[in-house]
Specification:
This protein has 216 residues and is an alpha+beta fold. It is built from six helices and eight strands, in the order αααββαββββββαα.
């Protein structure tokens, strides 16, 4: 298996099911009731062991070849949205350098925006809201309510006295059902103990304070 630079911050962003899948790739047997913190610890330990094995197998001048370093930008304007877990959607985007510079040097330019559009089962638009983003930002987590069926995230540039310009559109992401409702009433509603232990109530409160437009 190809090794990757697995860090604690990277692992903490993954869902528990993703952590278990990654553990399977590393050949780690994870009991069903094992706390995710212990899973992360096991993965970090396995990664460290793999790195040690790599050092032991170095040859030639004794220096291991550097890993492939991915570029910061692929110089194309695009946006992608994927469900990180049943409630959080991870959105990342890129700009074509020439297009971005042209926009930034336009006197009437105001801001870049992520436009989140929700769709019903028959693909009719049910709701939209905007998230302002800085020119240097390349990623954003968006909390998606389970009452909706699907969502699409578009990348826009907004200008004074002009219509917004759509730069790129993501594909549709479908929202899993069966999760706690993400509405204003969810903040004070009774939540099953197993979900409460996951920290979900605090997540709702924090997101409500910072992104109230996500709540119905």
């Amino acid at each position: 298996m190809d090794t990757v630079n697995v860090t604690r911050s990277y692992l903490e962003r993954l869902s528990t099911s993703d952590l278990i899948s990654l553990a399977d790739e590393y050949g780690i047997d994870i009991p069903e009731d094992l706390n995710r913190r212990f899973i992360i610890g096991e993965l970090l330990e396995a990664t460290e062991e793999l790195n040690e094995d790599k050092k032991d197998t170095m040859h030639g001048d004794g220096v291991a070849p550097d890993g492939i370093e991915l570029p910061e930008s692929y110089n194309e304007t695009t946006i992608t949205a994927v469900m990180q877990n049943p409630v959080w959607c991870y959105v990342y985007w890129d700009f074509k350098a020439a297009d971005k510079e042209k926009i930034l040097h336009t006197p009437s330019f105001m801001t870049f925006v992520l436009k989140v559009t929700f769709f019903s089962d028959d693909e009719k638009v049910t709701e939209t809201f905007d998230i302002n983003i800085s020119p240097s930002c390349r990623e954003q987590y968006v909390l998606l309510p389970s009452s909706e069926t699907a969502a699409r995230i578009d990348l826009y540039a907004e200008f004074k006295n002009m219509e917004p310009v759509c730069l790129a559109k993501s594909g549709l992401v479908y929202i899993p059902k069966g999760c706690p409702e993400l509405g204003v009433t969810a903040i004070d509603s009774d939540i099953p103990e197993i979900i409460r232990l996951s920290g979900f109530p605090e997540l709702i409160r924090t997101h409500y304070l910072n992104h109230r437009q996500s709540f119905s």
